[in-house]
Amino acid sequence: MTTTIADTELKARHRKMWASGDYPLMVETFLTPLGPRLVHAAGVTAGQRVLDVAAGTGNASLPAAATGAQVTASDLTPELLAEGQRRAEIAGLELEWAVADAEHLPFPEAHADVVLSCIGVMFAPHHQAAADELVRVCRPGGTIALLSWTPEGMLGALFATMRPFMAPPPPGAQPPPLWGSEEHLRALVGGRVDWASLTRETLEITAFKQPIDYARHFTSCYGPAIAARANAALDGRELDFDAALAAFCREWDRGTPEQARFEMQYLLAVGTRR
What helix, strand, coil percent values describe the chain, rounded to 5? Predict the structure, then answer.
């Protein structure tokens, strides 16, 4: 695929967005369990060549490397990879780190035995291009394993809440939570992947005492929320954004007055490359 100037500028904005705030803290606070869940579902074993696409801080890459697999963690945002590398060094794990665009992966065809992405590739704006790359870099008979937030779940609702405050999407871009739709995922890969399992599971979050604490966590740590609030501020609507996010977190709280609890649904997809 040819890279245009507009595409280069779009990816630069994406890198800046994910480098803003403190996404590593968000991972530490409640997202850490997702990486090991994906690695276990993918059946990663020692000696396999594993490529983690849109790896972020290595939430799936590190547990994959702990199995003895040969892991490459790739991501568009160097700042996230640097944090992942720091964590790997602390854990005594060895793996490769590569700055890479999920829509233009710098790896040869049939490069990996296992291709992973844990709430990562879903944020590539052009879904078909990213899906084609996942298939291309996986060897025939290899495993593709993806964990994505669902459109019907809490993160799907979050993006719907933020949409009125966000800048218009670029041409051809699709909403990230669509990757959590079984129908959309099947359409993206066509007949190139045999899905062994497509299961919906839930991440339970009890890290926040009150719903407003979660709302504040989003606006201080989560790149998409930070970008949406900054865009809202351009026409003086940042307080409207804050109110909408606070109401959203109250709506999705399943806890008690003393302890908030949230349930975030995701699709866990594991298949074999034809």
Answer: 45, 20, 30
Residues 6+ apart with CB under 8 A from 187: none
What percentage of the chain carries pLDDT values higher than 90?
A: 96
Q: pLDDT tens digit string along 41-50?
A: 999 999 999 9
270: nearest Cα among 36, 39, 37, 42: 42
Question: Nearest to residue 84, comparing CAs of 61, 103, 104, 100?
Answer: 61
Contact 273, 134 (CB under 8 A): no
Joined tokens for residue 57: 């801080």
SS3 225: helix
Q: To which H or E segment does residue 152 belong?
A: none
Cα–Cα distance between 245 and 179 in angstroms, integer? 23
Q: Domains in the chain, please, with CATH?
A: 5-204+264-273 (3.40.50.150)
DSSP 8-state code for residue 101:
B
70-75 and 96-99 strand pairing: parallel
pLDDT of amino acid 6: 80
CA 224 remoteness from chain centre: 12
**With 90 as the cut, is the pLDDT of residue 3 above it?**
no
Q: Is 112 helix (H, G, I), strand (E, B) or coil?
A: strand
84 within 8 A of 107, measured Cβ to Cβ: no
Mean per-residue pLDDT for 174-190?
A: 98
pTM (two decimals)? 0.97
Q: How far apart are CA 6 and CA 169, in angstroms?
A: 13
Q: How does pLDDT run across 155-167, given as a tens digit for each residue? A: 999 999 999 999 9
Q: CB 129: neighbour CB atoms within 10 A?
A: 17
